User: Which sequence fits this backbone?
């Protein structure tokens, strides 16, 4: 699990200027990075975090997003986000709003499955940084990135509402490893 501050990460096949409001990102002292996996552009700030599973490529798990997002969804349900689901091929959503995008990469008998979690991100910054294709927005029946994404913090139970992003991230990590503390 990790975090980046004010960064847009694009997939290996994306054209940066088509996906990112680059001039605005640079003006705001942001960073643009490219990852080795596919998938869409994602915005990182200290209100979100990323997760990553690295494993052997067993020949059956690649493209099985359910296998790798299940522990995340299970924890979110435990935390009160009852409507969190894997929707489509690789999005985690609450209703029609996305809070996580996921991608995979395989090489040399190993694979990586990874995704993001919008916990308490600045959704206006997400909107101003990303420039999705118009046809993608229209096909979802929405008017903007801002209306397509959500944070999960408003949906968590009271016990999680006052957690920082780091505390929530750590609680997820403890759940995945089925332990009570980091020690």
Assistant:
């Amino acid at each position: 699990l990790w975090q980046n501050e004010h960064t847009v990460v694009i997939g290996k096949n994306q054209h940066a200027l088509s996906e990112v409001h680059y001039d605005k990102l640079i003006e705001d002292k942001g960073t643009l990075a490219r990852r080795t996996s596919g998938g869409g552009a994602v915005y990182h700030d200290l209100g979100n975090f990323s997760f990553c599973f690295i494993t052997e490529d067993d020949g059956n798990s690649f493209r099985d997003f359910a296998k790798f997002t299940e522990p995340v969804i299970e924890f979110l349900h435990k935390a009160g986000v009852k409507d969190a689901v894997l929707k489509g091929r690789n999005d985690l959503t609450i209703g029609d709003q996305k809070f996580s995008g996921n991608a995979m990469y395989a090489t040399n008998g190993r694979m990586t499955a990874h995704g993001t979690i919008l916990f308490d991100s600045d959704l206006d910054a997400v909107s101003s940084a990303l420039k999705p294709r118009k046809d993608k927005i229209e096909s979802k029946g929405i008017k903007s990135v801002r209306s397509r994404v959500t944070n999960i913090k408003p949906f968590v139970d009271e016990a999680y509402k006052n957690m920082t992003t780091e505390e929530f991230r750590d609680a997820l990590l403890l759940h995945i490893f089925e332990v009570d503390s980091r020690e």
